[in-house]
Design goal:
The chain has one helix and eight strands. The chain is an alpha+beta fold. It has a single domain, classed as Quinohemoprotein amine dehydrogenase alpha subunit, domain 2 (Lipocalin). The protein has an eight-stranded antiparallel β-barrel with strand order 1-2-3-4-5-6-7-8. It is globular and about 35 Å long.
Length: 123
């Protein structure tokens, strides 16, 4: 029984990882971004974000040459990202748009404002 469970889990992992990797390929690349902070104020300038795939099928996100780092997973047409910004945990839910751009809200733990927004445009 244990052997069947272990083999079944290994088989499922082997089938799922390539699917995640295929989904991740949709968002891999370099983008410029603009947006608003959680208090609603617009970013003072646009920035650069790089998305790379990693062996697990997840993606690694780097903003502004390493100023911020995150990890993400593509599910359907949404890129969900967890990161740390200004020492606080942050999450983003970006929609993958037909033109290749990504857009959506983000939240940072303990911020007094509501949600921020970002729009990423592929270079």
């Amino acid at each position: 029984m244990l052997r069947t469970l272990v083999l079944g889990t290994a088989l499922a992992a082997g089938l799922v990882a390539p699917a995640f990797a295929q989904d991740a390929a949709k968002v891999v690349g370099t983008y410029t971004y603009k947006g608003t902070d959680t208090d609603g104020s617009a970013y003072s300038e646009s920035g650069k974000v790089v998305v790379k795939s990693v062996p697990s099928g997840a993606v690694e996100i780097t903003w502004d040459d390493g100023a911020y780092l995150g990890v993400g997973q593509v599910t359907g047409n949404v890129l969900a990202i967890a990161s740390v910004a200004d020492g606080k945990n942050s999450i983003m839910l970006l929609t993958i748009n037909p033109d290749g751009s990504l857009s959506g809200p983000w939240w940072r733990r303990a911020d007094k404002g509501g949600k921020g927004t970002e729009v990423w445009t592929k270079k």
